[in-house]
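Much of the work behind modern protein science is quiet bookkeeping, done one molecule at a time. The protein below has been through that process, and both of its lines are reproduced in full.
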Amino acid sequence: MDDFFLYQSKEDRNIPSAVFGSAAMELIKMKMFPKWALFAFKDLKESANGRPPSILAYIGVDIMILGQS
């Protein structure tokens, strides 16, 4: 995700919140995380904290919208 924030300081970056990270990690456990989305895995893993939301994600051919509590 650093590629999208070339000129912003670390404090001003819009990094995924804990609920999105938790949803992504649950998708990984269930083997449902799309391979094309692995570019965001590191940031999602670092932000994961707490219970995942009840709806983990909406996944399409080339889109993934992670759930939120």
User: Anything to note?
Assistant: DSSP finds two helices and two strands in the chain. Residues 16-66 form one domain.
